[in-house]
Amino acid sequence: MADPQRDPGYPAEQRDAVYRVIAERRDVRRGFRPDPVSPDVLGRVLAAAHQAPSVGFSQPWDFIVITDRARRERIAALAARRREEFAADLPGARARSFDALKIESILDTPVNIVVSCDRTRGGRHTLGRRTQPQTADFSSVLAVANLWLAARAEGLGVGWVSFFDERELAAELGLPAHLEVIAYLCVGYVSQFAPEPELATAGWARRRPLSWAVHAEEYGRRGLPGGEPMDPLAEVIAAIAPPDAGAMAAARERQDRMTKPRGSLGELEEVSVRLAGLAGCCPPPLPEPACVAVFAADHGVHAQGVSPWPQEVTAQMVANFLAGGAVVNAFAAQAGAEVTVVDVGVAAELEPVPGLLPRKIAPGTADFTEGPAMTRDQAVAALTVGLEIARDLVAAGNRCLVTGDMGIANTTASAALICAFTGADPVEATGRGTGIDAAMYARKIEIVCRGLAKHRPDSPDLADPVGVIAAFGGFEHAALAGFILGAAALRVPVILDGVIAGAAALAAVALAPDAIAACFAGHRSAEPGHAVTLSYLGLRPLVDLGLRLGEGTGAVLALPLLQSAARALRDVATFDSAGVSDKT
Ligand SMILES: Cc1cc2nc3c(=O)[nH]c(=O)nc-3n(C[C@H](O)[C@H](O)[C@H](O)COP(=O)(O)O)c2cc1C
User: What is d(CA 435, CA 272) in angstroms, rounded to the nearest whole number?
Assistant: First the structure.
């Protein structure tokens, strides 16, 4: 029996209607009809907006209803100017897909509504606003949400346009200086509402699963109510499966029918076959847009004198990447890829700037000649950082991930990881890194040997791949391993740069052997440990130019090769379709 003390909630049918309007509300940009919106309907929708919750009941919103065509034309011109500025800043592949997106319907809708916020309304003692002044803006946003939902129930589409210079727009609307523009909404009747966000349908971004967003008690303990706590690493490993044999066979068969002699695209044919196997379809989607994630961290083993460069260079280069001044930025600009930088363990405080993802596990690892470089918990945390970044970049619309790294002394840690995973001799796996003299090179080999002796294969340190990463790894190695696993689980290709990414791939493949299907070796680095790694992994490098810079440079150079391989498989005519005679 129903508890008389407890409000019963709404009857099922009405409850369903509430959830339905929430699920079916859409941001609408196209397909608007010119029909006018009656004052009655507009009044109901505005009344719904006006019932939103607000901090201290301050009701900081006002609604400016715009219908005048000349005014809307002036406003549309303001948005168009800012849109062009935004487009000019986008990397090539993103700019192309942005061009195709419709981001406003100012002139296509009969009514535009501006929701503003008065942050001073209610005076200085407004409850809850003193310590958190932003709550005034939040309250106006809630009015927008109410308006959006009520409009959906009325069959009215609403599109939110945020491509304005706020004060420019405020001036056009005669807003007093103390009022902020919160939202510019284009409102009109539509024939139908899209089932999914248009940006998802266009492949710009994907919806994040609810389970990534719900945490139990503390941030990071992900899991849905009533479910088991989620272990992101275990979940990602479990999701990694072998390539699709059917799609690979279809790709091989198509390569043989394409208007070119069989096998004449050499290794690129195999690349296209592997891309098809990974995507599970033939032709596979083009690997674009692409994003390079440069994982940066410092290394305790630097104290052993294994690099001629001071440790500060890691942080200085991070600043250079963010300013767009490094080689990887130049190569990425050429290839139309985005560069993002992840601080996963730089031994310096980094200023927050756009493009930097602050995910520091600790300010550098410990010296692996004295003990494990990191704890197991830190290794798992860094792996998780990497896989979450892979997910977020794919959710943001990227279809190809590219590894980058920065960390003074990370070739020493890489050599130790390569020896531990492949059993290679330290002399064979250790290289001259950024360029060191004979004495420092001999010392570097000795340090790798000392580390390997310290964490002997029978020690608990090396009992499993996570233990190996913890013993020797940099945080960037661990995060890169997670990044590779994340890409593999999402079946998105990941182009590996040189020896650091190679060492991370060894860890990833030790954790999930099928992850290899997502890995493409961008290039062969001049570091000797890289050749050992590639042959152990069975990967053939696409570019071999004697590069030994890191940062992701070699991998970015290979990006157009992957894209060309996929495009050829998709676009090239077959003998039948083009009416070209095959060889007899
Ligand atoms: C704060 C905010 C600003 C937005 N700005 C724009 C915009 O300038 N142009 C646009 O086309 N969509 C804009 N949108 C709409 C989002 O792209 C859209 O809500 C999102 O893709 C999810 O789709 P859905 O609303 O249909 O679920 C904005 C949405 C919000 C919440």
Answer: 36
For residue 151, what is the enclosing H or E element?
helix 135-153
| pLDDT tens per residue, range 371-427 | 999 999 999 999 999 999 999 999 899 999 999 999 999 999 999 999 999 999 999
Average pLDDT, the chain: 95
Q: Which residue has the tokens 């727009």?
A: 169
Strands 179-189 and 111-118: antiparallel
Calpha distance 57→76 (Å, rounded) = 34
| pLDDT tens, position by position, 34-84 | 999 999 999 999 999 999 999 999 999 999 999 999 999 999 999 999 999
Mean of pLDDT values over 187-201: 93
Residues with a catalytic annotation lie at: 551
Q: Which of 380, 470, 376, 457 has the alpha carbon at shortest distance from 423?
A: 457
Token pair, residue 37, equals 């919106």
Coil, helix or strand at residue 545: coil
Pocket test residue of 27, 196, 201 for ligand 1, highest count of atoms within 8 A of CB: 27
Reported as a pLDDT band with limits 50, 70 and 90, residue 2 is: low
Residue 199 CA, closest ligand 1 atom number? 21
φ and ψ of 196, to 5 deg:
-130, 160
Q: Which of 122-136, 274-288, 518-532 comes out lowest in average pLDDT?
A: 122-136
Q: Where are the beta strands (DSSP E) in 151-228?
A: 156-161, 179-189
Distance from the alpha carbon of residue 260 to the mean position of ligand 1, in angstroms: 45
> Residue 72 Cα, ligand 1 centroid: separation in angstroms?
19
User: What's the average model confidence in pLDDT over 173-180?
Assistant: 96
Tell me: cis bond preceding 289? Omega within 30 of 0 counts: yes
Q: What does each C-alpha distance from 255 to 172, 251, 267 come to in angstroms? A: 58, 6, 12
Q: What is the mean pLDDT of residues 283-299?
A: 97
Q: 377 C-alpha vs ligand 1 centroid, how far in Å?
A: 38
For ligand 1, atom 7, the nearest C-alpha belongs to 161
Q: pLDDT at position 1, please?
A: 60
Task: Give the number of other Cβ atoms within 10 Å of residue 386's Cβ.
Answer: 32
- Spell out the residues 6+ positions from residue 152 whose beta carbon is closer than 8 angstroms to its own: 21, 24, 25, 26, 158, 193
Joined together, the tokens standing for residue 108 give 């296509």
Residue nearest to atom 30 of ligand 1 (CA): 160
Query: Looking at the DSSP assignment, which residues form a beta bridge with residue 118?
Result: 179
Burial 102-117 (b: 16+ CB within 10 A, else e): ebbbbebbbbbbbbbb
User: To the nearest whole percent, how much of the chain has pLDDT over 70?
Assistant: 100
Nearest residue by C-alpha to atom 19 in ligand 1: 27
